[in-house]
Design goal:
The complex is a heterodimer. Chain A is 43% helix and 17% strand. By secondary structure, chain A is α/β, with parallel strands linked by helices. Chain A has two domains: 147 residues, Rossmann fold (3-Layer(aba) Sandwich), CATH 3.40.50; 123 residues, Rossmann fold (3-Layer(aba) Sandwich), CATH 3.40.50. The termini of chain A are far apart. Chain B has a single domain, classed as ABC transporter involved in vitamin B12 uptake, BtuC (Orthogonal Bundle), CATH 1.10.3470.10. Chain B is globular, with a radius of gyration of 20 Å. Classes of the chains: A alpha/beta, B mainly alpha.
Chain lengths: 293, 318
């Protein structure tokens, strides 16, 4: 077995593949094509799936359904390595990965430990914009020795997105938010969904244009921001939207008066997944919602 | 009593130490553990780089927090007292959360320093408000009030910046996840406070008779109180800086120990360190093994174990 690995590593070192990219900690170099990859955020699963690579481990919060079914179909079963916030380093180590892809925001405190397990590519995922996410996917493509495939897929993505964008109205202020039990959690202008909506030709309501983190909002604050279109995600059938709809303030909303309130049931792809497939699903759902009326 | 308790505690501690090395998301045999200390072993990372420093850290933090609790209970002479009444952990929490929410892109490596600074500032503010000569009870009430102020400011920050909640909340529950050799060596110098605490043991016995009796027996009550609290602050702030505020440890461990070995500080202080180490080792073991590969925070476990015990204690003493 040892000899086999020695041979294998010899062949790998013989191959001409070597790449250096810039990640969030500086420069990252790898001189073999990684085969056993562990990813610690959902967006990286998306980036692997679109070039046909399956990770062996995912920090999926021990719930495979956290990965959108459209992405799950593209990859082979994986081992859970725990939560995204505190992934189990023991399990990661036991999988013997040859590449770990970690999120700068969540995992920089364990970056050094991860590096002791395997070369670690650390990229922004959480709090990252649509454009930043595309850039991260391109870097992942290079590291996986799938640069051509990734570039082709990204080009196709641009095509798909502009097709969707062509079917959507332009310059309208759109606000997406999840209706929770006591409040709505709005995704503002600099968030992933916010930047995605703007890339499709929508505008962010001025009040939340420069906000990055999601904003917990009551009905009065929503009225103050008063977007032209309102897209509400619902995780359950009894959320704050039920209460709001009975309120006179609700009827004062521009979106309500002009009949531009849209509902997404099971919005987890909007609120959690960031990635190429996720963006295409979101854009597709938008076209369906806005053009069916 | 204490002659039997000592070895018993040591045995439990050693068993837990081995258990912490063996069990986790991946179980390793005892032989695997021994080999795991060699660099060519397949378990080298898990055993030597991950579980071993984390286990040592749990023992250190447990011991230090328990010792801090015993010191505070000794000088405040109130069984409800714990390092929390000094507002140190809340102060450290406030500094850490402020750093995380207002500078989300900044280097996480500075977090312990920020928390440490916050802890010491909180202690300094308390001292500045109460001065050198205030009574134990005034000190405690002021500390609790300040602690509440810091805690509510933390809540405010987390409501204003909800996206940062995850990181901040995680830190605030007190966790040993991802802590390793690096944190171990940061904490190591603070062990120097332990001999100072043990040296105070005799005077702490006297002050438990009341300030007047203690003074007539030759103890400078004010100096003793300040020194003990300063040592407790140092112990707590350094631990909180590394692991976040691990709840109930400083309250429960000294209590439990007092039940086991009595209130004589020469015995109480070393034993409470053992008990604290045992409690945190056990909490972290449970946190890692209850639902692998999900890791809970050790601080949640100490609260789950600590809170009912404390209630039981209160009702039983009534």
């Amino acid at each position: 077995m040892k000899r086999f690995f020695a041979c294998l590593s010899f062949f790998i070192s013989m191959s001409t593949f070597a790449v250096t990219v810039q990640d969030s900690q500086g420069s990252f170099s790898i001189d073999y094509v990684p085969q056993r990859i562990v990813v610690l955020e959902y967006s990286f699963v998306d980036a692997l799936a679109i070039v046909g690579v399956s990770p062996i481990g995912i920090a999926d919060d021990k719930d495979p359904s956290r990965i959108a079914s459209e992405i799950r179909e593209l990859i082979t079963p994986w081992e859970s390595v725990g939560t995204r916030s505190q992934p189990s380093l023991e399990v990661i180590s036991s999988l013997k990965p040859d590449l770990i892809i970690a999120d700068y925001s969540r995992h920089q405190s364990v970056y050094k430990d991860l590096q002791k397990i395997a070369p670690t590519l650390i990229l922004p995922s959480r709090r990252e914009s649509y454009q930043g996410n595309l850039a991260a996917a391109a870097i992942i493509g290079k590291v996986l020795d799938k640069d051509d495939a990734m570039q082709a897929r990204l080009a196709k993505h641009q095509e798909i997105m502009s097709e969707y964008a062509a079917q959507l109205p332009k310059g309208i202020e759109v606000q997406f938010g999840n209706a929770m039990e006591k409040y709505a959690s709005l995704h503002p202008g600099k968030s992933y969904v916010g930047t995605l909506l703007q890339s499709l030709g929508f505008k962010a309501p001025p009040m939340l244009k420069n906000e990055l983190s999601s904003v917990h909002t009551g009905l009065e604050q929503l009225l103050a921001s008063n977007p032209e279109y309102l897209i509400l995600g619902h995780y359950s059938s009894s959320d704050i939207a039920n209460t709001w709809e009975k309120s006179p303030l609700w009827k004062a909303l521009k979106a309500v008066r002009n009949d531009h309130v849209y509902h997404i049931y099971n919005p987890s792809i909007w609120s959690r997944s960031r990635g190429i497939i996720a963006a295409e699903i979101i854009a597709g759902q938008l076209v369906e919602l806005l053009t069916s009326k | 009593m204490s002659l039997k308790t000592w070895p018993l505690l040591l045995v439990i501690l050693s068993l837990l130490l081995v258990a912490n090395l063996m069990f986790g998301a991946v179980s390793i045999s005892f032989e695997g553990i021994l080999n795991g200390f060699q660099a060519d072993s397949e378990h080298y990372f898990t055993v030597y780089e991950y579980r071993f420093p984390r286990t040592l850290l749990a023992m250190m933090v447990g011991a230090m927090m328990a010792l801090a609790g015993a010191l505070v209970q000794g000088v405040i002479r109130n069984p409800l007292a714990s390092p929390d009444v000094l507002g140190v952990s809340h102060g450290a929490g406030l500094a850490a959360v402020t750093y995380m929410t207002l500078f989300p892109t900044s280097d996480i490596a500075w977090l312990p320093a920020m928390a440490l600074l916050g802890g010491f500032s909180a202690a300094f503010i308390l001292w500045w408000l109460c001065g050198n000569h205030s009574s134990a009870i005034k000190l405690a009430i002021t500390g609790v009030a300040l602690g509440a102020l810091y805690a509510s400011t933390v809540d405010f920050l987390m409501l204003v910046k909800p996206l940062e909640i995850n990181n901040a909340l995680l830190w605030l529950t007190g966790s040993l996840w991802g802590r390793g050799w690096n944190q171990f060596f940061i904490l190591l110098p603070w062990l120097g406070l332990i001999p100072i605490a043990l040296w105070l043991a005799k005077s702490l016995n006297l002050i438990s008779l009341g300030d007047d009796s203690a003074i007539s027996l030759g103890v400078n009550a004010n100096t003793l109180r300040l020194t003990s609290l300063a040592v407790a602050v140092g112990l707590t702030a350094s631990c909180v800086a590394i692991c976040g505020p691990i709840g109930f440890l400083g309250l429960v461990a000294p209590h439990l120990t007092r039940k086991l070995v009595g209130g004589q500080h020469q015995i109480l202080l070393p034993c409470t360190m053992l008990v604290g180490a045992i409690l945190l080792l056990f909490a972290d073991l449970v946190a890692r093994t209850i639902d692998p590969p999900i890791e809970l925070s050790a601080g949640i476990m100490t609260a789950i174990i600590g809170a009912p015990y404390f209630l039981w204690l209160l009702f039983k003493n009534k």
